[in-house]
Design a protein that fits this description.
The chain is mainly α and 465 residues long. Helix content is 59%, strand content 5%. The protein has 19 helices and six strands.
Length: 465
């Protein structure tokens, strides 16, 4: 098979080298974007009288026919043609003859592939944003159902203070909102058109780059042709955003695994998102959560692959850049699948009613409230903290908790205790007392739910429906 660059070469490519250098096995997924960019490029060439209108129409008809072949899964790939660009161009020439060769006027595969990746990522980022919005909506609906459900909050994986389950879930919503903003922001760097940069120096043909950009809905052009064909910052940024998103999902998955365990027993996962054991019939394994948690590692790896790929590349284009596509494609696939699975898993899960004695297993979940109680009586907080610590130490020695210690025992520790201390250390009063913006009190949680609904343009359902 004759290569489009074969004129300078006297020997054919080694067969193993041909396989080694080919990218058609994975870049074929760019076909629609390659054809979209080629049609716009062809229209521009005709507008600028670089090719005739008749040739332009003939080329565009051929490209649309090729697109149809892809959609019907009738396109026949030739691995000897290296990549998706050459496969499409070869098929175009088969269909319409030598005039198909005019399509590559004022263009290089260097700027062509950059365009394809930008078009591809632009579309995929929009889909990721839709999935983030859907998952966020699911969490907001779930949070609204649990504005009265108290759970222990943890630090160092030890019970710390009581919080509303809604407040805990909203912490993940905040993470997703930041993820959403990052993906929206990377669109600014993705949505810049490189076509017209050619191999690295631009082109001598009198093209109209702004017209091509308008046809492809790019608001901005690249400003330096050398940078344009060698830049993958936008792809690295996409993978970085994806890694952060997967880190958030992985953290949530870890909690799902814990909550669904018999030790916690807060959550019942649907059979649809769990599996059993081949030897232990009682098992119900949270495989969906574990897989998402595990897949975060491959997304981190994809980011590192791109960073390593780019770290020593001289300007401008180098063949190394062919290695950008597989980590990008894998990141897209992993993120989209993880968001879809997680959304389905959490939608179908059922949170259980947690008895108060299991909310406060240690018996000291409201210890901080005792310190606050004493501080409000005018005792310096450091001293109030010390008195509370002495109270906990006494309880541990006497095998008591804050729920069954007597007022007499408390007064033996400090005369500043009064009967009203017991009102301050109930779980509900502890939660409701945190009535500061961003706190766990129900009033503040409802404020945040309303804010997030407005920010994400989600219309809350009327109560009782």
């Amino acid at each position: 098979m004759k290569k489009p660059w074969s004129g300078r070469f006297k020997q054919s490519t080694d067969k193993l080298m041909e396989q080694f250098s080919a990218s058609i096995s994975f870049d074929r997924r760019l076909y629609a974007y390659d054809i979209q960019g080629s049609i716009a490029h062809c229209q521009m060439l005709a507008k600028c009288s670089i090719i005739s209108q008749a040739d332009s129409k003939k080329i565009i008809r051929g490209l649309k026919r090729i697109l149809k072949e892809f959609e019907l899964e009738q396109f026949k790939f030739d691995d000897r043609l290296e990549d998706i660009h050459m496969n499409i161009e070869s098929r175009l020439t088969q269909l319409i003859g030598p005039v198909g060769g005019k399509l590559h006027t004022a263009r290089s595969r260097n700027d062509q592939v950059c365009l394809d990746i930008r078009l591809y990522l632009r579309n995929e980022v929009e889909e990721v944003l839709q999935q983030i919005n859907a998952f966020t909506k699911t969490l907001l609906i779930l949070a609204r159902k649990h504005t009265d459900t108290i759970v222990p909050g943890f630090t160092h994986m030890q019970q710390a203070q009581p919080v509303l389950l809604a407040h805990h879930l909203l912490a993940y919503v905040e993470m997703l909102v930041r993820d959403r903003e990052r993906f929206q922001d990377v669109l600014k760097r993705i949505n810049i058109m490189p076509l017209g940069s050619a191999a690295l120096a631009g082109t001598a043909f009198p093209i109209d780059r702004k017209y091509t950009a308008k046809l492809l809905n790019f608001p901005e052009l690249t400003h330096n042709s050398i940078d344009a064909v060698s830049d993958r910052d936008f792809a690295i940024e996409f993978c970085s955003n994806s890694a952060i998103l997967m880190m958030h999902l992985s953290r949530f998955c870890e909690e799902i695994v814990l909550w669904s365990s018999s030790e916690f027993d807060w959550l019942e996962l649907s059979d649809s998102y769990t599996t059993g054991s081949s030897i232990m019939p009682q098992k119900k394994n949270p495989d969906a959560a574990e897989l998402i948690r595990g897949k975060s590692g491959r997304v981190y790896g994809n980011l590192l692959t791109l960073l390593t790929l780019m770290k020593s590349l001289p300007l401008a284009y180098n063949k190394d850049l062919q290695e950008d596509k597989e980590p990008i494609f894998d990141t897209v696939d992993t993120v989209k699948m993880s968001l879809t699975i997680f959304n389905g898993m959490i939608k179908s899960a059922r949170f259980k009613k947690i008895p108060l004695h299991r909310v406060d297993i240690s018996g000291f979940l409201t210890a901080t409230d005792i310190a606050d109680y004493l501080a409000k009586k005018g005792i310096p907080f450091r001293l109030a903290h010390e008195i509370t610590g002495q109270t906990v130490a006494y309880c541990l020695e006497a095998k008591k908790t804050l729920h069954n210690i007597t007022l007499k025992e408390l007064k033996n520790i400090s005369s500043n205790f009064s009967k009203d201390v017991f009102d301050h250390i109930t779980l509900d009063n502890s939660v409701q007392s945190k009535n500061v913006y961003g706190g766990t009190a129900k009033k503040q949680v409802l404020v945040q739910i309303a804010r997030l609904n407005k920010k994400l343009k989600i219309k809350p359902k009327p109560s009782g429906k």
